[in-house]
Structure formats: structure tokens, C-alpha cells
């Protein structure tokens, strides 16, 4: 498996559901026991599978930028309603 970027969409019943970046239409579902580090919903990550273990690198800058963009959008929506 080559390196690919994903966003962690949700964790359900012991499985992490990642959406492939940027279209976020393709899902990658991984058992939490096969993930090499703790990830949080909304994290943008780079994933590589080696010998049945998924090696995940959290892309801190991209994750923070995405969270800032979402917060900005939420603020604009709140202000629009006032």
C-alpha cells in the first residue's frame, strides 16, 4: 500500500473509519487494534500498511488548519443568524 492521506471520520464498534483526502468519498476501515498510535476524530493522517499493521503519521499542521477553517465557518454561521 502506498502512502495516502486520510481524515479520521469516526470510531465505531472498535473500528476507525477514515475518509480518503481530498474527495473524502472512499473509506478505509481499520480495526483499532491494528493501528500503531492514538488518533482522534478529525485528525488528518498519512497511512501506510506494512505486514498487517497500519502505520499512521498524524499531519499536525494540516489537522490544525482544518480545525481552524471549521471554527471560522462556524463563527460566520453564528454571526449570520444574529
Please describe what this structure looks like:
- The protein has 82 residues and is of the alpha+beta class.
- The protein has one domain: Beta Barrel (OB fold (Dihydrolipoamide Acetyltransferase, E2P)).
- It has 1 helix and 5 strands.
- It has one helix spanning 60-80; strands at 4-12, 15-20, 27-31, 44-50, 53-58.
- Strands 3-2-1-4-5 form a 5-stranded antiparallel β-sheet.
- The chain is elongated and about 55 Å long.
- The chain starts with a strand and ends with a helix.
- The relative contact order is 0.18.
- It comes from Lysinibacillus boronitolerans JCM 21713 = 10a = NBRC 103108.
- It holds the Pfam family DUF3006.
- This is Pyruvate kinase.
List keywords for this structure.
5-stranded antiparallel sheet, Pyruvate kinase, alpha+beta, OB fold (Dihydrolipoamide Acetyltransferase, E2P), 82 residues, 26% helix, DUF3006
Amino acid at each position: 500500500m502506498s502512502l495516502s492521506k486520510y481524515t479520521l471520520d469516526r470510531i465505531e464498534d472498535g473500528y476507525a473509519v477514515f475518509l480518503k483526502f481530498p474527495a473524502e468519498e472512499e473509506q478505509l476501515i481499520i480495526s483499532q487494534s491494528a493501528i500503531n498510535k492514538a488518533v482522534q476524530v478529525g485528525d488528518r493522517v498519512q497511512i501506510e500498511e506494512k505486514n498487517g499493521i497500519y502505520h499512521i503519521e498524524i499531519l499536525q499542521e494540516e489537522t490544525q488548519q482544518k480545525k481552524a477553517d471549521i471554527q471560522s465557518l462556524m463563527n460566520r454561521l453564528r454571526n449570520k443568524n444574529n
